[in-house]
């Protein structure tokens, strides 16, 4: 099928390349000329495992192209809209400027019977408000939220765990459903659940999934806070409750909390939208989820300070990681980067290292010191804090080797990713998050 993808950020670029990889003819469109030039040359503008490969394959096959011209969308049967919906400046709500601009720019190029499939994460009610503009061209709007995780985006797009489509009522909705079934045929044929709903449900599925995941992380981080005063170990607690299949161990990783371009802003936008709908109290707990999450960053800073005898001023602290999670170079709302900035603010001499995110981090925080080589970054440090659990640190850094490089032996494990016994045996004073 011929498809267009409007917006070539994390979501759109991966979606375009993945759709080409399953056999569709795809054009990716974005107003950012640099991004389009890079994608058209087969180079991923950000780090995402497997993306470069499917980009090059798609371009070589002739099925994948990129353009800054919205006219290139004409002739596609389905137009995916995957632009960003960041947090508004000075508020909690989602900024829909890019969604509105993308839909408006697309309208003149739509034909009778086209499908416009919104993929961006939007406040409930957005699709219903956009639908009349799309319908006026003879096209149909559907809302088809995306659940990909950065770091696994290609795999999640090619082989998702579920597909959700919010469609209008009646024949129009049925026809749109059939078209989407064709788009996603390889997944559906494999048995991937395909859930067809109304617009509002599809929009809510997306935000409630992220709200649930954020809540799960903050729940375990709240238990970490209790464990800290009670002398318990939150990682053993998580293992034990995680064996209950109703609870499950995934997303019970206590540490410095969640960040990234989705969870933080999505729970805030959800709160804001619920307030607008007069049901703010229904998701009032999300404020608490946010607060617990932010408190863990302070706790991590406190642990470094405690480890250094209460004084950060003039101390050398090496921060392992900058990305908001491993397998990504994304630093949006990165808890680890925030911890580094706070340490710097308290007078520590901070050196950051990360296998992928240094350039992005440097652009945002040029005043911090960045060292690409892990061992060089560790050399002479008074304290070390792990904030992103890359394999380079979690698996490949032995406590003995680290001790041979640093000046001090204080380690704060912001992701509970190290083996405390091994680090202590190598002479380190080990601090976990919610561990004795
Ligand atoms: C999240 C969701 O997991 C995806 O399903 C969703 O599609 C995506 O947002 C989105 O809305 O686009 P992502 O932002 O890539 O995906 O990252 P996650 O894997 O959810 O991790 C988010 C944060 O939570 C990271 O900072 C991670 O370190 C942290 N985390 C995760 C924990 O602190 N503990 C855990 O146990 C798990």
UniProtKB/TrEMBL annotation:
It catalyses: UDP-alpha-D-glucose + 2 NAD(+) + H2O = UDP-alpha-D-glucuronate + 2 NADH + 3 H(+). Substrate binds at residues 147-150, 206, 251-255, 259, 325. NAD(+) binds at residues 30, 35, 85, 121, 150, 265, 332. The keyword ATP-binding does not apply. GO terms for molecular function: NAD binding; UDP-glucose 6-dehydrogenase activity. Its EC number is 1.1.1.22. InterPro entries: 6-PGluconate_DH-like_C_sf, NAD(P)-bd_dom_sf, UDP-Glc/GDP-Man, UDP-Glc/GDP-Man_DH_C, UDP-Glc/GDP-Man_DH_C_sf, UDP-Glc/GDP-Man_DH_dimer, UDP-Glc/GDP-Man_DH_N, UDPglc_DH_bac. The active site is at residue 262. Keywords: NAD, Oxidoreductase. SUPFAM superfamilies: 6-phosphogluconate dehydrogenase C-terminal domain-like, NAD(P)-binding Rossmann-fold domains, UDP-glucose/GDP-mannose dehydrogenase C-terminal domain. Residues 318-420 form the UDP-glucose/GDP-mannose dehydrogenase C-terminal domain. Pathway: Nucleotide-sugar biosynthesis; UDP-alpha-D-glucuronate biosynthesis; UDP-alpha-D-glucuronate from UDP-alpha-D-glucose: step 1/1. GO terms for biological process: polysaccharide biosynthetic process; UDP-glucuronate biosynthetic process. The keyword Oxidoreductase applies. It is an enzyme of class 1 (oxidoreductase). Belongs to the UDP-glucose/GDP-mannose dehydrogenase family. This is UDP-glucose 6-dehydrogenase. It comes from Microbacterium oleivorans.
């Amino acid at each position: 099928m011929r498809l267009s993808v409007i917006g070539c950020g994390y979501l759109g670029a991966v979606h375009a390349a993945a759709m080409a990889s399953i056999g569709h003819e795809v054009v990716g469109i974005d107003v950012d000329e640099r991004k389009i030039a890079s994608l058209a040359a087969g180079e991923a503008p950000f780090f995402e495992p497997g993306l470069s490969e499917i980009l090059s394959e798609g371009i070589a096959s002739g099925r994948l192209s990129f353009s800054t011209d919205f006219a290139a969308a004409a002739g596609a049967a389905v137009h995916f809209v995957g632009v960003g919906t960041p947090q508004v400046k000075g508020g909690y709500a989602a900024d829909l400027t890019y969604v509105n601009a993308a839909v408006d720019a697309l309208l003149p190029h739509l034909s009778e019977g086209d499908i416009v499939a919104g993929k961006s994460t939007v406040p409930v009610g957005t699709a219903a408000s956009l639908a009349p503009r799309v319908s006026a061209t003879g096209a149909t709007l559907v809302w088809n939220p995306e659940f990909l995780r950065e770091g696994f985006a290609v795999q999640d797009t090619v082989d998702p765990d579920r597909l959700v489509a919010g469609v209008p009522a009646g024949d129009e909705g049925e026809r749109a459903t059939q078209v989407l079934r064709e788009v996603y045929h390889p997944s559906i044929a494999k048995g991937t659940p395909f859930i067809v709903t109304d617009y509002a449900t599809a929009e809510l599925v997306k935000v409630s999934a992220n709200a649930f995941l954020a809540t799960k992380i903050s729940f375990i981080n709240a238990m970490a806070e209790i464990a800290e005063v009670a002398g318990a170990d939150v990682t053993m607690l998580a293992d034990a409750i995680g064996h209950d299949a109703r609870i499950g161990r995934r997303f019970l990783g206590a540490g410095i909390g969640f960040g990234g371009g989705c969870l933080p802003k999505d729970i805030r936008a959800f709160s804001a939208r619920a307030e607008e709908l007069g049901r703010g109290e229904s998701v009032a707990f999300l404020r608490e989820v946010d607060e617990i999450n932010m408190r863990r960053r302070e706790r991590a800073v406190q642990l470094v300070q405690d480890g250094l005898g209460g004084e950060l001023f003039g101390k050398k602290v090496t921060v392992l990681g900058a990305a908001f999670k491993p397998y990504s170079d994304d630093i949006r709302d990165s808890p680890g980067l925030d911890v580094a900035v706070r340490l710097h603010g308290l007078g520590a001499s901070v050196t950051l290292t990360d296998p992928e995110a240094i350039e992005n981090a440097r652009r945002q925080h040029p005043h911090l010191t960045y060292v690409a080589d892990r061992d060089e970054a560790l050399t002479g440090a008074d304290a070390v804090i792990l904030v992103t659990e890359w394999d380079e640190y979690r698996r490949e850094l032995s406590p003995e080797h680290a001790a041979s490089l640093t000046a001090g032996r204080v380690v704060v494990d912001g992701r509970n990713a190290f083996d405390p016994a091994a680090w202590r045996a190598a002479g380190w004073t080990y601090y976990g998050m919610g561990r004795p």
